[in-house]
Amino acid sequence: MRVLQLIDSLHAGGAERVAVNLANGLSTKIDKSFLCATRQEGHLKESISSQVGYLFLNKTKTIDFRAIQKLKAFIKEEKIEIIHAHSSSFFLATIIKIIYPKLVLVWHDHYGKSEYLDKRPTFVLKWCSKLFNHVFVVNSKLESWSKEMLDCKSVSYLPNFAVANNKASLTKLKGEAGKRVICLANFRAQKDHINLLKAFNMVWKTNTGWTLHLVGHDFKDEYALDIKNFIKDNALEKHVFIYGSCTDISHILNQSDIGVLSSKSEGLPLSLLEYGLAGLATITTNVGDCYKVVSKDAEGLLIPSNNTDALVNALLKYINNKNLRLESGRCLKAKVNTSFSEPSILNSILETYKKHQI
């Protein structure tokens, strides 16, 4: 079995990390595992195993004949049998499927705005889905939506999984050890950093020494500017720190004490699983399939989205009780290791691949 993971970029986002994790994980289980970045490279390139075949297309437009030809030649030369396309890379994968009809085409839907599926564009996706052999989705809402809206009858829920990151320990978090709150999320509006900043601004004044650390890609857009302006306007520069994209996630989480996701919408966020893998006390909004990870109070605190008071209370609950933090982190780590482990997810993927091979 020879499988290519197809992803638009290698920036440190959830879908991108899943694509790299799959390529790496499958490299010891199949004849040959490959990964292709279509549009941009990024920090995650450093995380690709030496056992994984790699291709960068530098695709610059929707229909880029040079990129299509390059990918076509690579697939032929490497005798690739299965394309596992992630997120918006499905369009290029569909073109290749038309050229090589015997290819198995699997689409992995990481759509993070599962609370707003009624606003999702569908025309091109629905047409392309006629050529999909299978669709993986990352939460139950997407599963129902795909079965209703797409022209692919083979659809299954596939939870994300987290793996320990062994990259060199480069990032040293600022602030006092034992009093750090981490938010691992790219600067996108759906992640609602502003609500987290509002809550933290109410918390730190009576809990001196606690600091908030924001790790994620800065798109340098209006939303990122809003985050920076809030920090400046509220004189939080000595209490809130921005790091941008980082590759040494495990090292960063090992320096942290509370993990927070304040999102308005999610699929099944990889960062939530990474908090669990690191044994962090975790607070997350009840969006997407977050409730499947934090399913009871012992595993973490599940709160309503866009609710500053609820987030303040959750932060205070953990800040004021170190034993509760430690026990909650242990419970969530056990849950992630049991229910969201790499071996079980890879086995499910392999079974699906085999089912659709000609």
From TrEMBL:
Q: Which organism is it from?
A: Thalassobellus suaedae
Q: Sorted alphabetically, which keywords does the UniProt record give? A: Glycosyltransferase, Transferase
> Quick check: keyword Transferase in the entry?
yes
Q: List the EC numbers from the record.
A: 2.4.-.-
Record-linked Pfam families: Glyco_transf_4, Glycos_transf_1
Please tell me whether the keyword Cell membrane is annotated for this protein.
no
Q: What class of enzyme is it?
A: transferase
Name of the featured protein: Glycosyltransferase
What highest taxon heads this organism's lineage? Answer: Bacteria
Q: Where is the Glycosyltransferase subfamily 4-like N-terminal domain?
A: 13-160
A GO term for molecular function = glycosyltransferase activity
| InterPro entries on file | Glyco_trans_1, Glyco_trans_4-like_N
Instruction: Return the Gene3D superfamilies for the record.
Output: Glycogen Phosphorylase B
- Domain Glycosyl transferase family, chain residue ranges per copy: 176-325
